[in-house]
Amino acid sequence: MSDGLTKSQARNIFYGGSIFFFVVFAGLTAHSHIYALGTSTNNDKLTESVERGKRVWEKHACVNCHTILGEGAYFAPEVGNVFFRYGGREDPAGAKEAIKTWMQSQPSGIEGRRQMPQFHLSEQELNDLADFFEWVAHINTQNWPPNDAG
After folding, report:
1. Following DSSP, what letter does each residue of the chain receive, concatenated?
2. β-strands 71-72, 67-68: how paired?
């Protein structure tokens, strides 16, 4: 018996390993798609207002300073749970108003704090952005971010 692999043994190991890992990859891909179908996003609450709010978010490049569900810059707070931080679980309308008021009061001018610019958003844009934050807050993020402060 030889000490090394024959050409056919090496070929069989290569093909067998390739097929094995392809099957594992396909299974994990299918699992993630099946899992995501009913558990991650709240498609039933996706409205035109939420879509417009997302466009406001993109138009003003908010992701250049903020993170949303962990994606973006870490200069300013996470906004994926800002709706709940402003009391959205108990009083959704009050949380939306608080978010809009906070946006209108920027920059705060507090010494030593990072300042958010004033974007001069219209009432419609503020409503849409608040609706977008509410929608994002209800995505099943599997407890991300790990703390309420963002």
Report:
1. --SS--HHHHHHHHHHHHHHHHHHHHHHHHHHHHHHHHHT--GGG--HHHHHHHHHHHHTTGGGT-EETTEE-SSS-B-TTHHHHTTTTT-HHHHHHHHHHHHHT-S---TTS--PPP----HHHHHHHHHHHHHHHTS--SS-SSSTT-
2. antiparallel
**Predicted TM-score (pTM) above 0.85:** no
Instruction: Report the C-alpha gap between 110 and 66 in whole angstroms.
Output: 19
Per-residue pLDDT of the chain (150 residues), as tens digits, is: 567 889 999 999 999 999 999 999 999 999 887 776 655 567 778 899 999 999 999 999 999 999 998 889 989 989 988 999 999 999 999 999 999 999 999 998 889 888 999 999 999 999 999 999 999 998 877 777 777 776
